[in-house]
Amino acid sequence: MVVPTMSSLLIKYAGELGLDQKRFHDDLMSQAHASRIDSDIDSADNSGVSGTPTFFINGRRHYGAYDITALTAAIRMARARARLDRDAPATRQ
To answer: Residue 75 pLDDT > 70, yes or no?
Structure first.
């Protein structure tokens, strides 16, 4: 029995998704996007993200449930906060 390699499986899945398999293969082998992935990992680490999904709404991490009701409520709350911040009188420093 021949066990497929991880890269061959990824290339197969890319084709199933309708992606250009040759380009996907070339990018995978050359690690064309490695620096972007490293940057995303660093960003996640700096934000305290340890898994997926993790949601940020207006730059704030959402710690609640991920269902549509909870996310809708969190977005509405963020919009209300943004309005308050926008409409608040300027303070002197």
So the answer is: yes
Q: What is the C-alpha to C-alpha distance for residues 20 and 11, in angstroms, rounded to an integer?
A: 9
Q: Tens digits of per-residue pLDDT, 3-49?
A: 889 999 999 999 999 999 999 999 999 999 999 999 999 999 998 89
Residue type present at position 61: R
> What is the end-to-end Cα distance of the chain in Å, rounded?
72
Report d(CA 91, CA 47) in Å as an integer: 29
The tokens for 61 are 């991490």
Per-state percent for the chain, helix, strand, coil, to nearest 5? 60, 5, 35
Question: Rounded distance, CA 43 to CA 37, Å?
Answer: 10
Report, in angstroms and rounded to the nearest whole number, the Rg of the chain calculated over CA atoms: 21
Q: Residue 2 pairs with which residues in a beta bridge?
A: none
Whether the pLDDT of residue 92 is over 70: the answer is no
